[in-house]
Amino acid sequence: MTAFGVSSYRDGHVNPALRRLGFGAKDRVVIIHADDIGMCEATVPAVVELLDFGLVSSCSVMVPCPWFPLAAEWSRLHPETDVGVHITLTSEWANYRWRPVSTLNPTSGLLDETGFMPRTTKQIQRQGKPEAIFKEACAQVAIAQRFGIRPSHLDSHMFALKGAFLSIYLQLILNLRLPALLDRKALKSREQRGTDTLEVEEQGIPVFDHVGSPPAGGPPEDRIAILKSLFSALPFGLSCVLLHPAHDTPELRAITPDWRYRVADWKAFRSNNLKKHLRSIGVQVITYKTLSGSMTV
Q: Which one-letter DSSP state was computed for residue 222?
């Protein structure tokens, strides 16, 4: 299980975004977020069911991936839902790959030796040209909008827009005036010389105190118990819990060896047992659309 650690604020202090939304110092507020929507067909009906159930509060789509149009069609027909753009700069699977949407020029640094996006965050941050990264991210947002999506937020696949590309991420947030998955740990990284968390928050950009996710390990049938423990350990402040839900299909099994845990997440987050647990421990679930109300940029 991904540990959340201790609260980022001393007693009596509140995350500025939460304070603007009316929350207090001892509130535990979380966005429960489904990543990788449109990566394969199995992700789309899974997230539709989870958002309808009401425990998962948000999702984001992968524009370069083959099943993005299906996800976009559903989002266009349900504009009230919380759908962001999962900026995608890497293509990690062994035999299932995708390419950039803005260019196929190798000098951009957006391609590996096979002509697809690089497999790892380390590789894209080493070779990607900043101007090409910014152009690709903007192109993915523009395509999502062209397909009828009204993005509620931004985040980045495999956290590729952190580290060396954090300044690009911040520029996108400011340009688009959208909240994003941006956390204190990323801002405090020693790679970010000159980037100050207080300065970012003073610009009116929300910053998450904690980010966590259920593990890709352990017996899948124990998923609800594992998730109960994860949410019980949620600290005070603003958190994001990331999951990757999907239906069990031959395509999903062929793509990723962790398919069992993606299916287990889909099953667990349709559980009344888990929903009642969150209510009983006082965890408050919000959306990125709610969080956007805290922005002052």
A: G
What's the rounded Cα separation, in Å, for the pair 81 and 44?
13
Let me know: does 61 contact 68? Beta carbons within 8 Å: yes
What parts of the chain have a pLDDT lower than 70?
1-12, 189-195
Q: What is the pLDDT of residue 7?
A: 46
Per residue in 99-111, pLDDT (tens digit) is: 999 999 999 999 9
CA distance to 112, 158, 160, 167, per residue, from 104 (Å): 11, 21, 19, 24
Q: CB neighbours (10 Å) of residue 181?
A: 26
pTM of the model: 0.94
Distance CA 243, CA 229 (A): 15
Q: Who contacts 82 (Cβ-Cβ below 8 Å, separation ≥6)?
A: 51, 57, 58, 59, 152, 153, 287, 288, 289
Instruction: Give the position of tokens 């909008």.
Output: 145
DSSP assignments along 129-170, one per residue: -HHHHHHHHHHHHHHHHHTT-----EEEGGGTTSGGGHHHHH
**pLDDT the model gives residue 192:** 52
Spatial contact of 89 and 124, defined as CB atoms under 8 Å apart: yes
Give the separation between CA 9 and CA 236, rounded to whole angstroms.
8
Six token digits for residue 91? 């293509």
Read off the tokens for 172. 């996108």
pLDDT digits (tens, 9 = 90+) for 243-283: 999 999 999 999 999 999 999 999 999 999 999 999 999 99
